[in-house]
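Researcher: We're teaching a course module on how sequence relates to structure. For the next exercise, students receive a sequence and then see the predicted structure as tokens, so they can try to spot secondary structure elements on their own. Here is the exercise chain.
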Amino acid sequence: MRNGILLTAAFMLCLAGATQAAISSIDQVGQQFSKKTLSVKAGDTVRYQNGDDVTHNINIIDAADVTRDMGLQKPGEQIPVLFDKAGKFTVRCGIHPKMKMVVTAE
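Model: And here is the predicted structure for the students to work with:
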């Protein structure tokens, strides 16, 4: 029984020491992203907030040129995007091609 308690205590200490994933926010205003570049840790989430009065369409493009289409984003809506693996990602609006930023997940 004592070994079970020690194992449970060790497991809880490991959980307590684990880092939580972070959430960053990027605004979209004037058909632009609020930042041109952003660095996050793999496993972090970036929340894209549409502060414009027009619809956007977030696309995440990885180094292999694979695109994740996050769908239409109406004014006032937020879209959370999980960057679950390391890499460099181009983020674009599928409707407004001049809207572009780069997210680097380490």
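Model: If you want an answer key for the exercise: The first helix runs from residue 2 to 17. The helical segments are 2-17.
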